[in-house]
Amino acid sequence: MEMRLMIETEGPDGPGHSTIAAEGRYWRLTEPLDISSDTLPKYACASYVWGDERLQNPIHPSITMSDRTLPTFAAVVRHAPGCAIWIDAFCVPVEPNKKRPTLESLGFIFSRAESVVAVVAAESLAAMREMKATVGVISCQLNPPADLIRRPLDTLDTDMWIRSVWTYQEVVNNPGMLWFASTAGDQPAIDSMDVLQAVGGYMLAYSKVNPQYADIHHRHVMDFEILLIDCHMGAFIRRSAFIIMSGLKNRTYLEPANYFYSMMGALTTQPSSRTTNPTLEGLAERFMQLCEEKGDYSFIFSARERDARPGLRWRPLPGILRPVLTWHCYGEGQPGRRVEDGILLEKVVVFTPVPSEQHSEDALWSWARLPLARWVESLAVTGVEPEGLAVQIRQVLNHFVGFSGRGDTFLTENGVFYAQEVLPGGQVCICVSREVRWTFGAPGIAKVDSNGDVSYTPGVFIGDVRSDTIEVTDFILH
Question: Which InterPro entries does this one have (predicted)?
């Protein structure tokens, strides 16, 4: 990778250097810096979205840049005084063989920044301030006011910075300060902890007034809240591949490669030295390879079809890796390692399906009622007629929680497994993660043995995987 920064200089263009003016000062691009040393200057990173409009790039005249770049740069200058600045339009190399490894090294770049300044729309910053003021007023009240308005939530839910695939890794990797600002010079920045308390408190209050609405109809705001939590917890936990896939599921991108650059930036803070021209499949392979190197196999719980090659039938086909279900999850990854004829998953729970007559719907409801009850009620409001509890929960998963599977349903003694795809006939056993989970269950993968022909299908397990009475074991996927 190549690391360059924008630094302050005494005046306009000097010999061999293009400069820009911002906040009454001049700035130029450094030569490549030595990333192997501890002598990198103190710098702040700019986090923003490009939009559609383009201007000629004053630092790299052969290419264009977003019309938002210069106003964003000025905002970072205002809110990160005394710092050099990293901003993509100027600091990412133009040459493809240098650009690609730099884009794969965004985790490195953002993790070493003194601060990150996220530049959002002026209306969004105003909405954050409104939420903060409202939460400050109602925090001492027993119940939030019934007329609590949804406009600030609507504003944030449509903000393109909050929806962008790039911003996930730009935020979660920064161990320093995260500020939210706008390009308006008269708006002071807001610290990310204040934003987290404001957004989280407002969402909680609004959901009390509208218990079947807030987190379902404002999924991007909920993702934003989870992102901020991840940002502040990042120093204490290891981020799993499954958490990253979940964090990026609802985010937008212009080019598929950007999806994987952000995924790799969130997964590792090590610089990349790759100079090849990667395809989408190559980037997917690279992401899965990085996961395996870390001993985290939670990427196998992607909803993608499985690889058909012998010894790799457990592995998702390389491509866009979506999680089987998009919801806030816990855990530092699915531990495992390669063995001679496949992979060995550690700390999992293995279930064998039981006939429906041996399964108690009351028991299933006891596992699922707390996190899923209000969504089941919402289905009744929308007129969906459930045929049974297991079917009703599947409708909840499909309708509210981002599960796209249409496969078989398997009852077990401790819950129910919903397969992503229809399984072939044969002997079925279900391997469920104990280390990556949701409040209502965990991702899993079904193994089907059809007279020696083994296949795998991912899915969602709703039920108990944490009880001390459940045996934790290892499981080999061939």
Answer: HET
Does residue 416 contact residue 390 with C-beta atoms inside 8 Å?
yes
What is the count of structural domains for the chain? 2
Please report the beta strands in 83-196, taking only residues with DSSP state E, as ranges in sequence order.
84-86, 115-119, 177-181, 190-191
Residue 215 pLDDT exceeds 60: no
DSSP state letters, 376-407: HHHHHHTT---SSHHHHHHHHHHHHS-----S
- pTM of the complete model beyond 0.85: no
190 has pLDDT over 90: yes
Largest CA distance in the chain: 83
User: Three-class SS of residue 53?
Assistant: coil
Question: What is the rounded distance in angstroms from the CA atom of residue 164 to the CA atom of residue 118?
Answer: 12
Residue 255 forms part of a structural domain: no
Cα–Cα dist 437/368, whole Å: 14
User: What dihedral angle (degrees, nearest 10) is formed by the CA atoms of 36, 38, 44, 45?
Assistant: 20
Coil, helix or strand for 248? Answer: helix
> What is the distance between the alpha carbons of residues 18 and 31, in angstroms, rounded to a whole number?
12
φ, ψ at 398 (rounded to 5°): -70, -40
Q: C-alpha angle with apex 301: 295 to 305, nearest 5 degrees?
A: 120
Specify whether the CB–CB gap between 289 and 278 falls below 8 A: no
How far is residue 210's CA from residue 302's CA, in Å, rounded to a whole number? 32
Domain span holding position 359: 281-478
Q: Which amino acid is at 186?
A: D
Strand-pair category, 177-181 with 115-119: parallel
Does 153 reside within a domain?
Answer: no
Tell me the backbone φ, ψ of residue 71, rounded to 5 degrees.
-60, -35
Is residue 38 situated within a structural domain?
Answer: yes
Q: Which amino acid is at 364?
A: L
